[in-house]
Each structure stands twice: as structure tokens, then as C-alpha cells.
TrEMBL record:
One of its GO terms (cellular component) is extracellular matrix. PANTHER family: REVERSE TRANSCRIPTASE DOMAIN-CONTAINING PROTEIN, TRANSCRIPTASE, PUTATIVE-RELATED-RELATED. This is Endonuclease/exonuclease/phosphatase domain-containing protein. The lineage of its organism: Eukaryota, Metazoa, Chordata, Craniata, Vertebrata. InterPro entries: Endo/exonu/phosph_ase_sf. It comes from the Eukaryota.
Length: 161
């Protein structure tokens, strides 16, 4: 499907991959960047990026934050695109979220910033910009404070966006 649709970038969240898999995850014409969950099953994030794009991954030292950052060089006079992929497990510690918010604040000045994220926070109402829980309100404030927009408008799982 990826190659048929000719996507430039494909993000995978909660991929469940690790070094124990003997099967190939390569796609012709794409380079794979991934960050496996350390010390636990499940989780992890990955990006397939078309080989024709000039992309460079950015390392992060926070083992607890399941996040991957990639800078895609803009063509001609276009700005570089900074792409972040983050998986947030259910019941994530607020301290781990805070580490991510600090990183996001550092990169939010990028002229073209795209963040793909599984929030796992069903109580956020993106249309009303409200949330019941404090942790969810912090996420909503972070999105708004960094001038990001929620583009998903339909439920993706169990009635949540």
C-alpha cells in the first residue's frame, strides 16, 4: 500500500518491533528510522522516508520518551521540515510528558513542524479544546502553545480522536 500510494513519509506508532525479529521490515525506495521501546514490550515508533528526500534523524537521550525526530531538507527556497513522531502509552507518567514538552519547546521555532502522535488521552475534546484530566489539559495547552493543529477529525479507536 505504501508504495502503491507513493507516500513520501509513513509514520508507525506502537510498532512492537525489537531486535529479536528475524523478518525484514525494509521497503524498496524508503529508508527506515526507528526507535524501539527499551526494556518493555509494545510501543516504539518508526518512520519510512522516501530515499529521494534528504532526511537526517536527530538523537534524543531520553530513553523513557518514545519519540523520533527527523529533519527533511526543503527543496529550492522551501524551509526544512522538522517531523516528530511520538507514542504515549496509556497512564504515562507526567514527568515523561514534561521531558517531551521541553524538547518540543526547543524545536517549536521551526518554520515547518509536523508532529505525529498517539496521545492515548480519550478525555480531550479537540473541537472544544477542553479536557477533564490535568495531564490531558497540559497536552492540549502544549499543542496550542506551540501553534500546532489537530488534523485528525474522526475517531481512530474506540470512539476517540
Amino acid at each position: 500500500m505504501v508504495q502503491q500510494q507513493s507516500y513520501d513519509v509513513v509514520a508507525i506508532l506502537e510498532m512492537w518491533w525489537d531486535d529479536s525479529h528475524s523478518w525484514s521490515v525494509a521497503l524498496d525506495g524508503y529508508k527506515l528510522l526507528r526507535r524501539d521501546r527499551k526494556g518493555r514490550r509494545c510501543g516504539g515508533v518508526a518512520l519510512y522516508i522516501r530515499e529521494a528526500l534528504d532526511a537526517m534523524g536527530s538523537e534524543t537521550n531520553d530513553d523513557e520518551v518514545e519519540c523520533l525526530w527527523v529533519r527533511i531538507k526543503g527543496k529550492a527556497n522551501k524551509a526544512n521540515i522538522l517531523l516528530g513522531v511520538r507514542y504515549t502509552p496509556p497512564n504515562q507518567e507526567e514527568e515523561v510528558d514534561n521531558l517531551f514538552y521541553k524538547k518540543l519547546e526547543n524545536v517549536s521555532g521551526s518554520p515547518a513542524l509536523v508532529l505525529v502522535r498517539d496521545f492515548n488521552l480519550a478525555d480531550i475534546c479537540w473541537e472544544c479544546n477542553t479536557a477533564e484530566k490535568r495531564q490531558s489539559r497540559k497536552v492540549s495547552e502544549c499543542v496550542e502553545g506551540n501553534f500546532l493543529s489537530q488534523l485528525v477529525r474522526e475517531p481512530t479507536r474506540r470512539g476517540t480522536i
